[in-house]
Automatic annotation (TrEMBL):
Keyword list, A-Z: Amino-acid biosynthesis, NADP, Oxidoreductase, Proline biosynthesis
Coiled coil stretches, renumbered: none
Pfam family membership, one: F420_oxidored
Domain called Pyrroline-5-carboxylate reductase dimerisation: residue spans: 103-206
Function: Oxidoreductase that catalyzes the last step in proline biosynthesis, which corresponds to the reduction of pyrroline-5-carboxylate (P5C) to L-proline using NAD(P)H. Proline is synthesized from either glutamate or ornithine; both are converted to P5C, and then to proline via pyrroline-5-carboxylate reductases (PYCRs). PYCR3 is exclusively linked to the biosynthesis of proline from ornithine.
Presence of the UniProt keyword Zinc in the record: no
Protein name: Pyrroline-5-carboxylate reductase
Family: Belongs to the pyrroline-5-carboxylate reductase family.
Source organism: Echinostoma caproni
GO BP terms in the entry: L-proline biosynthetic process
Source species, domain of life: Eukaryota
Keyword NADP: yes
Every Pyrroline-5-carboxylate reductase catalytic N-terminal domain range: 1-39
EC code(s) of this entry: 1.5.1.2
Length: 209
């Protein structure tokens, strides 16, 4: 199959990507290989494929399953602009954002977008649970939480405003929202999320060694 293809999508787990590429290495001469294996660097892949193989490393996220994904990518030294155009074309139907960044930033950025859906799901779950605690039926609490997260994301995207300003616009003096924000700050939610991004980035670095 690889021999007949111009572009190879390497969509396997990080612990098997290098052995998988090694097994078909002789068929990767002058091919474009696009990997989604977390933590596996371009240099590591370069060691197991022919010198003529062109490598692109992508870090997607799970919302691509509903055509709403975000992905970051880095290219190997021999990858051409035509290769990137081809890769972008292949990915355009499932990613809203497909951004090229230096590979040195890919683990940190993945801590935002790659792992970020899990943070959002956790926040949505907690938001709905809070409603249930206060007497809101769970199906309605879930619906409200999901719609609120979607609407807030749409506002940030469409207005281009800083999240801090949008938050402040909701917080009336002495109102319910500022009381809620104060409770979140007391609970350390901001630091917890920042620490989560750091933990994800550090773990990705560990995987790549």
């Amino acid at each position: 199959m690889a021999k007949k293809s111009d572009v190879i999508l390497a969509c396997v787990k990080p612990n098997v990507i290098l052995s998988a590429l090694s097994e078909i290495a002789k068929e990767l001469d002058s091919k474009l290989v696009v990997s989604v294996a977390a933590g596996i660097t371009l240099e590591q892949m370069k060691q197991v494929v022919p010198k003529t193989t062109r490598l692109v490393r992508i870090m997607p996220n799970t919302p691509c399953l509903v055509q709403a994904g975000t992905a970051i990518f880095s290219r190997g030294a021999t990858v051409t602009n035509e290769d990137i155009a081809m890769t972008t074309s292949l990915c355009s139907s499932i990613f809203n954002v497909f951004e090229e960044i230096p590979e040195s930033l890919i683990n940190a950025a993945s801590g935002i977008s790659g792992c970020g859906p899990a943070y959002m799901f956790l926040i949505a779950e907690a938001l709905a649970d809070g409603g249930v605690r206060m007497g809101v039926p769970r199906p309605l609490a879930h619906k409200l939480a999901v719609s609120t997260m979607f609407g807030a994301a749409a506002m940030m995207e469409k207005t281009g405003e800083n999240p801090s300003k949008l938050k402040n616009d909701v917080c009336s003096p002495g109102g319910a929202t500022i009381a809620a924000v104060h409770a979140l700050e007391e609970g350390g939610v901001r630091a917890a999320i920042m620490n989560a991004v750091q933990a994800a980035a550090v773990r990705s670095e560990e995987i790549s060694k």
